[in-house]
């Protein structure tokens, strides 16, 4: 579970959709398991990157989860 999708993708909180997409593609290229077949953690890192990107592109899907985290001091 991703705590801060902005941190995972390495973008600022005011990043545009294009900046988020570029950061996602760069991270995906850097950590994709196909490029690192000997790294057992590559798939986990790729899943984290995918979830972070999905959280920023589909916030309504994660809305109930993020409201609970904001009340408890999670990411904003």
CATH superfamily: DnaJ domain
In sequence order, what are the helices and strands, one letter per element? Answer: HHHH
CATH class: Mainly Alpha
**What proportion of the residues is helical, as a percent range?**
55-70%
Q: List low-pLDDT spans.
A: none
What is the CATH fold-level name? Answer: Helix Hairpins
Could you write a compact summary of the structure shown?
By secondary structure, this protein is an all-alpha fold.
Commentary on this structure:
By secondary structure, this protein is an all-alpha fold. It has a single domain, classed as DnaJ domain (Helix Hairpins), CATH 1.10.287. Helix content is 59%, strand content 0%. It starts with a helix and ends in a 5-residue tail after the last helix.
Write the SSE topology.
Layout: H1 5-9, H2 17-31, H3 42-57, H4 63-71
Helix pairs in contact: 2-3
Describe the structure using short key phrases.
0% strand, Helix Hairpins, 76 residues, mainly alpha
